[in-house]
């Protein structure tokens, strides 16, 4: 693989690199173009951290040309039945790659614009519903609110009373069990 031009950003170089790797390992004939919407993501086969690590390793090895030449020599073998196939795949036309990349980027841009439009519509609908609910204040009757507050207070007092009674009954139960245990311990010693 040859290095893409340096005028591209890091993300664009990564995208071109993914396309070149896909072109090497694709199962389609050389001229076929797959559906741009289905092949937009890389299925996490080539994470960007792997790509950056690979670039760093190439720089440490002494440049891109040396590493590429080394990889070509190791991959081409006269005994391998795959050598002719890999040589054919290496000759993939760069214009086809560029057109595939352009179609995929256009499809991705269309998907992103649809998503943005959908999100804007949602925001506008939410803003409209908030405006409608703010303008409509519910009617409040002071007498009804006073009765509701009195009922809530009575209910709160009743729940506190029940809680206190439960705590007292649990305490009495524990004391009775302790007394019973002490009586059982005293009975065998007196006989």
Question: Which helices and strands, and how do they pair?
Answer:
Layout: H1 10-25, H2 48-61, H3 64-75, H4 83-90, H5 94-135, H6 142-190
Features:
191 residues; mainly alpha; 6 helices
Sheet with most strands: none
SS-derived structural category: mainly alpha
Strand composition percent: under 5%
Number of helices: 6
Count of individual beta strands: 0
Average pLDDT, all residues: 74
Task: Give the N-terminus to C-terminus distance in angstroms.
Answer: 100 Å
Give the SSE string. Answer: HHHHHH
Q: Give the count of structural domains.
A: 2
Compute the gyration radius: what is it?
38 Å
Poorly predicted regions are: 74-81
Indicate the percent of residues in helices.
over 70%
| Overall spatial form | elongated
Short précis:
This protein is an all-alpha fold and 191 residues long. It has six helices and no strands. It has two domains: 10-127, no CATH class; 146-191.
Describe the structure.
It is built from 6 helices and no strands. By secondary structure, it is mainly α. It has 2 domains: 10-127, no CATH class; 146-191. The model is unreliable at 74-81 (pLDDT under 50).
